[in-house]
Amino acid sequence: MELRAVARRDRDRVLALANRETSWQCGLGSSHADDVHSAFEAGAEQASRLLESNGAVTGFARVAPVTSGVGHFSAIASERHGFVTLVDWACSDVSVPATLRTSVASADVKGVLDLHGFTPYLVQRTMALARELAGSPALPAPCRFADFESRWLAPLLATYVAAWPDEVDVVEAERTFRESDGLVLAVDAERVAGYVLWERVDDAIGVIHEVAVHPDCRRRGMGSALTRLAIGRLRPLTSRIELLVVGRNPARLMYERLGFEVVDEVEFLTRVASERSVPCAAGSGCA
Hints:
The protein has 287 residues and is of the alpha+beta class. Helix content is 28%, strand content 34%. α1 runs antiparallel to α2 and α5 packs across α6. The protein is elongated.
């Protein structure tokens, strides 16, 4: 088994590996091949390794910079032994950022990362609509539904800031609101009490990206009504409707009442310099 630097000529062989069924992966999205292709477009050879065995590619790992001193670690391997080797590299190479972040859906893979000092900090759950809803969505009086228009931008941004005080990016939010094909507001006179944002990602799947209600308007059924409206708009266009719930978001209970069920769970992990220990040698008993 050989671990070496990656060259652009390796892309097709790595893509072939990504297209194979393997549970030994971390930091990759649902479309492994697309993620690997993007890595090569961005210059994967700068901080990546290829694992070969008897001339065949059996593993690939990359650390992509997130911010200064922080990198996103992704890896894919055909079996456990190779995956451990790739994690060893990421945890010991001096050129890799001091803090690594990744994501994992498999308990076995998480066990390997645990042994290398990774600790969880966030869980993201995908929920899918599992049953049909009866009736029409209704907002509490005197609010009404309104499709987005430019005149609503200022009060919409004010509600966005109030609803997400720890995650404010007004410039990005304004761009998203202006360009979105699926955005409906709950309005009262000149105020935006809440909004729902969705997207059809392909012919089969609709994703509700964001349901937000101004803190002054919560606990009145606003979020439920906005979610139901999005479902109604997406239902004729898609065969599956999904949304994401991050961490301990209490909105999960509302989504469950509306008929959503958890279908996938991804755990995000981090490993910082102060937690680094001597990595396990590939093939050792600790992994």
